[in-house]
Amino acid sequence: MYSLRRSSGGPPCHRRRSFSAMAICYFLGAGNDNLFKQAALLVAVSQGLTQLQGWATLLFALPFLLFSAAGGWLADRYDKQRVILAVKILELLLVGVGGLGLLWQDWRLILAMVFALALQSALFGPALNGAVPELYPARQLVRANARLKLVSTLAILLGIALAGVLLDAGGGPLVREGRRLVALTAAGFSGLGICAALVIAPFGARRTPRSFPWLGPWRSLQDLWQLRHDPLLALALAGSAFFYFLASLVVLQLNSLGVQQLGLSARHTSLLSVALMLGICAGAFLAARLTSVTRWRFVLVPALLGLTLGLALVGSAALLAPDWQQWLLLPALVMSGACGGLFLIPQASFLQARPAADARGQVIAAANFCAFGGILFSGQLFNGLALVMTPGQGLQCSALLTLLAAGGLAGLLRRLAD
């Protein structure tokens, strides 16, 4: 079931066209998710509803736990292009409903929209990520994933930055005009995503013999149990899950650090996450130069140690005078992101290359299940930390968690080497 596979990728012109269209779909979808989510979080923080950040993160992660197995089954059963197109159409419908909730400041509708957007992402991810190894051979996967990470990171940057810019342009998070601009922009992104999905060439259906996973989480747990036979695949999956747990926790802490502790505007608070994501882009391309799907473990521990230092510095920024804070914050966030990208990309590429073609969606879905289990936990951990410490102190705790993870990983890698 698990072995490195080669892919012909088809004619180069078709490969480039499909990959570009997939990248655009990914860009617009990730931008939409983060635009809506960041706008909702900034409105919540501005209203003093800090606890809603944790609940929004919980609801964003929950569909990946419930429906990741279904997304993997669809990707292995049907033509991935058709799955991508259907999910993009669903996204447009959901954005329309969520925009109304944002306009009315109806938190039940907004939180339901966060859940629904995550549901469509849970179905979209295995199809898109599973298609990449069908376009490129294993030796090119790290580079292709670095490009996709650049695209998705730029989309996350755009979504997060636009949320603050649009809200401020309309008079602030509590003014209706800014929220209307967010809703219209999100609808435009969804419409463009449908156009891009129509350009992707068909991949053909694999027709996996597995039955539909009606008990989604239980099927995901069964798939994870099977990975015990492949320690390297299990390691990559666990590392990916830790990255997404930590990234989610840090973004929540940055929102509170900017608005509550440093007194920044919505726009400048969003730019903290922008600096982090720019670093991830740099780390992704560094990973493409240093690693491959057969040689990647040597960068993991150094990347985590660099991430520990970066987060510790970010958490210390509140101790400085306001004029000096930006000179520490921005370089430390870029450094943290670069180490995170160097840590993530080789493992994500290995998760795509290792499984057989008819089990690729299954493995990617299991990885999503773990990653968003970590994100789910990060929301609850954030709520708990916010009750007993400042956001800066919370970031210091995140640095400590990363240091402990680096120590545990170093011991595990020594055992695997033996």
TrEMBL record:
Record keyword Transmembrane present: yes
Any GO MF annotation of the entry: transmembrane transporter activity
Primary localisation category: membrane
Ranges annotated as spanning the membrane: 55-76, 83-104, 110-129, 150-169, 181-205, 232-251, 271-291, 298-321, 327-351, 363-381, 393-413
Compartments, record wording: Cell membrane
Record keywords: Cell membrane, Membrane, Transmembrane, Transmembrane helix, Transport
A single cellular component GO annotation: plasma membrane
The UniProt record lists the keyword Ribonucleoprotein: no
Domain of life the protein comes from: Bacteria
Leader sequence segment: none
InterPro entries: MFS, MFS_trans_sf
Membrane topology summary: Multi-pass membrane protein
Pfam families in the cross-refs: MFS_1
Name by which UniProt lists this protein: Major Facilitator Superfamily protein
The species this protein was found in: Desulfuromonas thiophila
